[in-house]
Amino acid sequence: MPALFSGDLPERPLLYHYTxxxxxxxxxxxxxxxxxxxxxxNDARESRSWHPSVVADDGLDVSxxxxxxxxxxxxxxxxxxxxxxxxTADRTPTGPFGGAGQFHRGYARARMWDQYAEHHSGACLILxxxxxxxxxAEALSAEGxxxxxAVTYVDRRVGDSNGMLEFRASDLRRGIxxxxxxxxxxxxxxxxxxxxLDWMTEEEQRILFVERxxxxxxxxxxxxxxxxxxxxxERFDPDSLDAIxxxxxxxxxxxxxxxxxxxxxxxxxxxxxP
Length: 274
Prior knowledge:
Layout lengths: L13 E6 L4 H7 L1 E3 L1 E2 L6 H4 L5 E3 L8 H18 E6 L22 H7 L6 E6 H12 L3 E7 L1 E2 L12 E3 H4 L3 H17 L1 E2 L9 E7 L8 E3 L4 E7 L7 H10 L7 E7 L2 E6 L2
Parallel strand pairs: 4-9, 8-10, 13-14
Antiparallel strand pairs: 1-6, 2-12, 3-5, 5-11, 6-13, 7-11, 14-15
Helix pairs in contact: 1-8, 3-7
């Protein structure tokens, strides 16, 4: 197998995207990674309603009906306006054995293989970070704000750095969509790059897209030469191997760069396909 699949960290930054077996041919066939809404995230902090509060600052009455309506529209506009693609990355080796084994590599995360790749029956895509980020910016920046960053893990409420998600009534009377867009622009790191401590082992990095104007439910990022390798889980359907190798080749991935992650003596190893 190529030197990439060793304990040595690569010279250029890579991203690792875990996916299910039935999604893999769709990604390879289209050459695109779909962005997901926050409703589809596993962290309840993101997938459940945020319940923003409203401060009556303009001397006008705010009825309970107005408040409930504003709260619902704000939550929908904030969370539907944002879409994300999620990845993990390599980390510096730690522990008494240092770099022995491949546990620190982005393709060797046992929990992520189990949770995001259907109990080791899915796959992990390895992508060139700089190329993928550049493609995302080129494809999406005309229709919204594109940002990239690593997730910060902290146990606090959704909102600003103090855990406050608060709007002024005077701003909401100008328009819910405008207020939501302005808030996301000011607090995107706290809202979209913050998760609870339970998720910190994922060491997640994200492509973020905050849509301007009318909302579109489908957005994706073209890979266009950023796909480096495809790693299949040890329980991936063997009857689909040839089809996946053929699809990977359409994205510029040589057959030697399609492997399988197996666990030998409790340690992850990348093995060539038969």
